[in-house]
Amino acid sequence: MKYATSSVTADRRPLAAAAALAWALTAALPAAAQFSEPPTVREVPRAETRAFDAEEQLLLGDWRVAGVAGHAAVLGSRARLKLEGLRISGYTGCNALGGNYRVERGYLTTGGVITTRRACAPALMRQEKALLALLDQRLAIRQSHRGQLLLTGRDGKTLVLVRSAG
């Protein structure tokens, strides 16, 4: 009867090499990295928050989308935008959106808005497409006499926003 003892020895060599490598890596780590205790978190002073000018103050807050590119918002769509600390977020009536924005010389510009990718009814998809197309442009900021916020693109199409209650 023959026994295959040489294959057992060959199988242990890679394990021994791996163990030696692990030991060598551990020995090379600084002493602080070898302890399981997390490092102490230092209190980092926050940068001062810059003051918003009057234009930017006008934009801040929660807004309900009342109209997009000459059409009233789809009934029951609950489309909304929130502008807060140079971040824009909201809901198109179909998908959530988010990104950055800035205000310069009476114009709002987003830094590229991202959305979730859910499919909805055709009317909601048309509203979303028009809303995102507007947010992809440089928008002139104006407040109407009724307190609506009007954001108008190069092509004359306007996003009509109404301040949300509470």
Task: Write a brief structural summary.
With 166 residues, this protein is of the alpha+beta class. The chain has 4 helices and 10 strands. The protein has helices at 6-28, 31-34, 54-59, 122-135; strands at 61-68, 71-72, 80-84, 87-91, 96-104, 107-110, 114-115, 139-143, 149-152, 158-163.
Describe this structure in words.
The chain has 166 residues and is an alpha+beta fold. Helix content is 28%, strand content 30%. An 8-stranded antiparallel beta barrel has the order 1-3-4-5-6-8-9-10. Strand 5 and strand 6 form a beta hairpin. It is elongated, with a radius of gyration of 29 Å. The termini are far apart.
**Mean pLDDT over the full residue set:** 79
Strand content: 25-35%
Q: How do the strands line up in the largest sheet?
A: 1-3-4-5-6-8-9-10
Helix count from the secondary structure assignment: 4
Share in helix: 25-40%
Q: How many DSSP-defined strands?
A: 10
Low-confidence stretches: 3-10, 32-39, 44-51
Task: Give the N-terminus to C-terminus distance in angstroms.
Answer: 87 Å
CA-atom Rg in angstroms: 29 Å
Bulk shape: elongated
Structural class: alpha+beta
Q: Which sequence of SSEs, written as H and E, runs from N to C?
A: HHHEEEEEEEHEEE
The largest sheet is:
8 strands, antiparallel, barrel
